[in-house]
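Title: Request for sanity check on dTDP-glucose 4,6-dehydratase prediction

Description:
We are preparing a figure and want to confirm that the structure record we downloaded matches what your pipeline produces today. Could someone re-run it with the sequence below and paste the raw structure tokens into this thread? We only need the token string, no images.
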Amino acid sequence: MTKKSILVTGGAGFIGGNFVQLMVNKYPQYDIYNLDMLTYAGDLTKHSNIEENDNYHFVKADISDRNFIIALFEKKKFDFVVHFAAESHVDRSITDPEIFVRTNVLGTQVLLDAAKQVDVTKFVHVSTDEVYGELDFDPTTFFTEGTPLQPNSPYSASKASSDLLVRAYHETYGLPINITRCSNNYGPYHFPEKLIPLTISRVLSDQQVPIYGDGKNIRDWLHVLDHCEAIDLILHKGINGEVYNIGGHNEKTNLEVVKTIINTLGKSDELIEFVKDRLGHDKRYAIDPTKLEKLGWKPLYTFETGIAQTVQWYLDNKEWWEQIINGEYQNYFKQHYNRN
């Protein structure tokens, strides 16, 4: 029987990297292709434990390189595509929106054209709850799959645009798709510029931890392993054409998150430094994941168990995040894949 093949774009990133690990270990009967451009946030060191596995393959490429991507799909005839690859840092999108449009919109269109050409069985597009805009502080309101898209940053606007392209390729061409929209992720291998790993690394070195505004902005926190299990379920059992929201039932203010980490590490709240608020900073995100739960998924981590596990992981893997901060991780590809 021919092995099924799955293309995972952005598999050297945070969420995509954890998903690649899950799939390689859980499905030895699948060939897992990790395609990543290895921009500043792309890190292959996290896959050193699986890179010799027969069912793991790495491809260095830009998803917006149409000629390369079309040729790759024609050669490999992928059965499934799980599309994580994206520029995702909101602050960077405010200072340089163009790269977000190029990668997140045009890159997605290239992948859709390639997937259509080889008749993939399923194209799963991984998006974000940020496409919905913001909620007020009323705890009874949540994002559902029917919430109108009202993105407020160049990043979320680019993701909303790609969501609509994916939907259009399903409606127009019959491409079998699912769109997932998740809340804020955290967990192992999170790039140190993001709130939780940034806080951990700074607190461990007794540096100030910056918090935008008054720290009262609320996010629904989702452990990355819960997210990966949800995408696996949607890949195999998601109803064609449907959108699924993935949330962790863990609403916390940014200030609560930072204080929890500081207290866990036995440090002082005096490390907190309030800084000028981000432009267009959404007040609150909160997801209603009922639709996905009816499909058979439930998060395993509460915020309390998840953040404790995450802090311990960073304590146990200091070498990993230190080589991210000092930039040594960027040499890994040349050293281990023997390419220029």
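Thanks, this matches our download. The CA atoms of residues 125 and 149 lie 16 Å apart.
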